[in-house]
Predict the structure.
Amino acid sequence: MVEDVQAKEKRATITGPFGSSIGSKFFVEEGIPVIRGNNLTLGMEKFKDDGFAFITEQKAEELKGYKAFPGDVLFTAAGTIGQVGMIPENCKHEYYIISNKQMRARFDTDLVDPEFAYYWFSSKPMVAYIKALDTGSTIPLINLGILRKLPMPLPPLEEQKKIKKQLTTLDNKIEINRQTNQTLENISQAIFKSWFVDFDPTRAKILAKEQGQNPELAAMAAIAGKEVDELEALSGDQLAKLKSIATLFPDNFEDTGVGLIPEGWESSSLGEHFDVIMGQSPKGDTYNENGDGMMFFQGRRDFGFRYPKPRVYTTDPKRVANAGDTLISVRAPVGDRNMAATECCLGRGVASIRHKSGARSFTYAFIGHIEGKLGDSGSDGTVFSSINKNELGAVSFVAPNERLVVLFEELLSPTDQRIEINSQEISSLEQIRDSLLPKLLSGELEVASAN
């Protein structure tokens, strides 16, 4: 039997400062990081150790009572309540300051394993429980009084550590898959940039001609990321593939309204080469979280690393994206992207985009290239709080040879398929992990058998 206690004495809690306590003058490019809601999650990703605002060390010392260290468990107090995080032992910084919308719990480690506590409070039943305690009228709120009264099972410390080990093993595998996906994503984006932004193969051809060398071999080496003499180690099939790609890159530039681009390529716009569907929200009374109807995404809230996470469904979809379409946020912040895993309904905060050839990998890479620039309207530099179809269609696009788009798709499709498989495995592991904790705590499953 597990003791179910509130146990105030086993946890010390505080709410962070901010507002009048920290003005903009204290923010710096580098310094002591301030933990905000974007560093916590509604899932079981313990802590996002980036995306911080920073304050001076002097100001941080004035706020030393609000420091958070490895092992501290963090809760969102206002806004997206139910977010829980834990600062890991291998974090990037010595310590952090929590914002006024965060609360910190520090546990007596003679009685409570902090990571066990994190797993408990970030579990789906507890997140739902926390959300049900909302005291806000316009913004969801919880406070320290609520936090201190949250129930927590308290098996013996050694039992807590064994349960934590089981869950951590799953988390480690999930993290390996996430890191692998990030590496694959970086490779895809680097190839797109080399071919269609920096035009490296064309530059290699031009330089080779100037130096009296073989332009085609130079372009092949640039595409392969190798030196020319290293090409000899490649197989005949690999060389033939490189040659077929290299021949599609011209050996000269031409000046256009957007600058120098490979000769024969077109200075155009997104709307000329991509199909765009803007979202339209169904009526609210058609929404449900029971899985009835079609998955519905209103905005970036549901976006994940590559694929959005199902949360809301609608029985009356208006605008629909197909599996493989790139989804893009069209309301602040404009430009964030995901990919539709299956057919889904688009709300007004989302649009779907796909190259007219159907090239999904090319589309996703192109939107990845421009997503950081979509906050600018172009010539006048106005920042968009939203973007409409005409504005989106006017985004500049250097259109390459169509055959090159096909070859890029062939090259990157296996990478995207690997990311999809890894993402599906992550989802399965998360489901196993989420179901494991209550079974271990209830005694339904023995810790030893959970292996």
Summary: The longest strand covers residues 102-107.
